Amino acid sequence: MTQAAEEQLLSRCMHEKGFRYRPVRLPEEAGRPDRNPYGLLTPQEAATDGLGVVSARLNQGPPRDPNTKESSRPGWDRALLGTSSHRVTVRLPHDQAYFYNSDSCTTRMTSQLYGQRYEKLYNTYQVWTMQVVSTVEKRSSFKAAQRRWAACMRDEGAGVTSLSEPANKVEKALRQARGKRHGLRSVMKTELRLARLNASCQRRVKLAATVATLQQEAERDVLGRLTGTQSDLRELRERALERARRLVNSPGNQLSGTPAGAR
User: Fold this and answer.
1) If both were cysteines, with which of 44, 106, 247, 261 could 18 make a disulfide (CB 3.0 to 4.6 Å apart)?
2) What value does the CA radius of gyration of the chain take, rounded to a whole number of Å?
3) Alpha carbon distance 69, 153 (integer Å)
4) First vs last Cα of the chain: how many Å apart?
5) Burial status of residue 254 (CB atoms within 10 A of its CB: 0-12, 13-18, 19 or more)
6) Burial class (CB in 10 A: 0-12, 13-18, 19+), 191
7) How far, in Å, CA of 245 to CA of 249, rounded?
8) pLDDT tens for each residue of 81-90
9) What SS3 string covers the chain?
10) Which of 90, 96, 172, 167 is CA-nearest to residue 134?
């Protein structure tokens, strides 16, 4: 719903600047949740999608852009993405930062749909969330659990020492396959085998339970400083969803005609 509203607002803004912008339809895969940041894997996930490497490669690629011809017009990028002379840099915790161009249609769309506070709150929360992950991974009990998992994997014939290695091995094999059909089938078999071993060893050493305990502790220590941030983000998202519903469902939400200056 919000993605459709984003595209509609971009279309309106670009129309005002003299361009015809056709909304981009994203594939369903674009909305799939991110992989667990620690590399945790359930037996069900392992059986259906392996480590997610091959499926991600097969599904990758940008959606078909209906604006290919129009975007070649002079000024298109300036209208959509803005200009460096209007660049605003926002500092975040832990020496992180992001920037936006205040004269862009993308910035206007974000402000209209999500509100002016949303982007900074969202990015701040992301920084602190990654700090939680970093805190967990530095804990001695996490490192000990990872060593037990690695020993289990070694006993099963898979020589890995960190939770990121199985996926890295598949990525390497996928690059070497170079898109050849026979090679791809071999990589898929390798991925499923590693994924099943991975999930099995994680279950044996109770890795998920260890991570859950450590994450609760880290969230209290790290996210406890962000008083009200989660509730504020939730409220802004709910407001954005309601705005999106009104926009998408309104009778006059489709633009018609050719904007001034459009060819």
Assistant:
1) 261
2) 23
3) 52
4) 30
5) exposed
6) buried
7) 6
8) 999 999 999 9
9) CHHHHHHHHHHHHHHHCCCCCCCCCCCHHHHCCCCCCCCCCCHHHHHHHCCCHHHHHHHCCCCCCCCCCHHHCCCHHHHHHCCHHHEEEEEECCCEEEEEECCCHHHHHHHHHHCCCHHHHHHHHHHHHHHHHHHHHHCHHHHHHHHHHHHHHHHCCCCCCCCCHHHHHHHHHHHHHCCCHHHHHHHHHHHHHHHHHHHHHHHHCCHHHHHHHHHHHHHHHHHHHCCCHHHHHHHHHHHHHHHHHHHHHCCCCCCCCCCCCCC
10) 96
Closest to 104 in 3D by CA, of 75, 64, 131? 75
Question: Which phi and psi angles does 142 have, rounded to 5°?
Answer: -70, -45
User: Do the bridges between strand 96-101 and strand 87-92 make them parallel or antiparallel, or are there none, so unpaired?
Assistant: antiparallel
pTM exceeding 0.85: no
Phi, psi for 90 (deg, rounded to 5): -115, 120
Contact 167, 50 (CB under 8 A): no
The model's pLDDT over 166-224, given as tens digits with 9 standing for 90+, comes to 999 999 999 998 767 778 889 999 999 999 999 999 999 999 999 999 999 999 888 87
Residues comprising the chain, all counted: 263
* Rounded alpha-carbon distances, angstroms, from residue 160 to 79, 90, 170, 176, 230: 49, 40, 12, 19, 37
If we measure between CA atoms, which residue out of 32, 52, 55, 54 comes closest to residue 44? Answer: 52
Q: Is the pLDDT of residue 256 over 60?
A: no
Sole residue written with tokens 């060593």:
147
Report the largest interatomic distance among the alpha carbons of the chain, rounded to a whole angstrom.
69
91, amino acid identity: R
How many CB atoms neighbour CB 18 within 10 A?
15
